[in-house]
């Protein structure tokens, strides 16, 4: 089974297709996965692997490690475009997420004031005002919406909570109108295809209702735990992106 875990709390920088030179912040265990989705395409593997033994990193430890890394990078003249919360699961599940965001902003301002801070979130914690306020404080609040059709969303993302719905998250995403970035993974597999006209139509209507700052669409570019999934070819992805841009009037980044 595909299982690529980050074994550090602060990792990289790595080259991100969408963000550039990205220093990662992993708020999950170093030897396991904690996530409120169990996506078929997650490179970290399925949730069934377990949560590991190291537990969640403490806020103080995250701040110390980040400051040490940023100080070393500045001293060495290393380039950096963005600090990105990602890693082995959903970062907003960390009980000190909001405080860690504040610590990260302070460290960024001291060492790399021109660098952006991004959070990659699966949108499952948007019922928390504390989480949402923290997401508003970062430069790039990147929110997942893989399908606006309930049955497809459940097949692709496999949310842990039965109460999480496509309609519900679309309503919650509206609070980030003009500021949030919606990210959608397009793919195909047995009984799954979110590139059909019906799927794209539903997404377009959702994007219009949410009115984000930008839309990011992408497809698989590495191995996935479900090996039956297939990537969408670049030309097809660009055609989908062009259609979304034309019908929503919103900027669409295709990668």
Give the SSE map.
Blueprint: E1 10-16, E2 20-26, H1 59-76, E3 82-86, H2 97-111, E4 116-121, H3 129-137, E5 140-144, H4 150-157, H5 166-173, E6 181-189, E7 192-193, H6 197-210, E8 214-219, E9 230-231, H7 234-248, E10 252-254
Parallel strand pairs: 2-3, 3-4, 4-5, 5-6, 6-8, 8-10
Antiparallel strand pairs: 1-2, 6-7, 6-9
Structure notes:
- The chain is of the alpha/beta class and 255 residues long.
- The chain has seven helices and ten strands.
- Strands 1, 2, 3, 4, 5, 6, 7, 8, 9 and 10 form a ten-stranded mixed beta sheet that branches.
- The radius of gyration is 18 Å and the shape is globular.
- The model has no long low-confidence stretch (mean pLDDT 96).
Offer a few descriptive terms.
single chain; 255 residues; alpha/beta; 10 strands; 34% helix
Low-pLDDT sequence parts: none
| Helix content percent band | 25-40%
How would you spell out the order of helices and strands? EEHEHEHEHHEEHEEHE
- End-to-end separation in angstroms reads 26 Å
User: How would you state the average pLDDT, rounded?
Assistant: 96
Counted by DSSP, the helix tally is: 7
Taking Cα atoms only, what radius of gyration do you get, to the nearest Å?
Answer: 18 Å
User: Structural class, judged by helices and strands?
Assistant: alpha/beta
Query: How many beta strands in the DSSP annotation?
Result: 10
Short précis:
This protein is 34% helix and 20% strand. The protein is an alpha/beta fold.
């Amino acid at each position: 089974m595909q299982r690529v875990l980050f074994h550090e709390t602060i990792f990289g920088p790595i080259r991100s297709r969408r963000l550039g030179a990205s220093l990662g912040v992993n708020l999950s265990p170093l030897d396991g996965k904690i996530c409120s989705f169990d996506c078929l395409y997650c490179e970290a593997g399925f949730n069934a692997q377990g949560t590991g033994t190291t537990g969640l990193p403490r806020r103080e430890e995250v701040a110390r490690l980040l400051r040490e890394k940023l100080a070393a990078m500045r001293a060495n003249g290393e380039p950096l475009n963005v600090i990105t919360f990602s890693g082995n699961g959903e970062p907003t599940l960390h009980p000190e997420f909001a405080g860690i965001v504040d610590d990260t902003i302070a460290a960024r301002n001291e060492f790399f004031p021109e660098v952006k801070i991004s959070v990659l979130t699966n949108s499952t914690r948007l019922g928390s005002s504390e989480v949402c306020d923290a997401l508003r404080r970062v430069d790039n609040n990147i929110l997942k919406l893989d399908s606006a059709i309930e049955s497809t969303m459940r097949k692709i993302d496999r949310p842990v909570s039965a109460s999480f719905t496509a309609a519900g998250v679309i309503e919650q995403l509206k609070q980030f109108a003009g500021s949030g970035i919606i990210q959608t993974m397009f793919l195909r597999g047995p009984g799954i295809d979110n590139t059909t006209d019906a799927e794209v139509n539903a997404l377009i209507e959702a994007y219009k209702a949410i009115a984000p700052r930008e839309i990011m669409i992408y497809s698989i570019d590495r191995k996935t735990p479900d090996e039956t999934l297939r990537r969408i070819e670049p030309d097809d992805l660009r055609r989908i992106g062009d259609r979304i841009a034309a019908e929503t009037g919103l900027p669409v980044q295709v990668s």
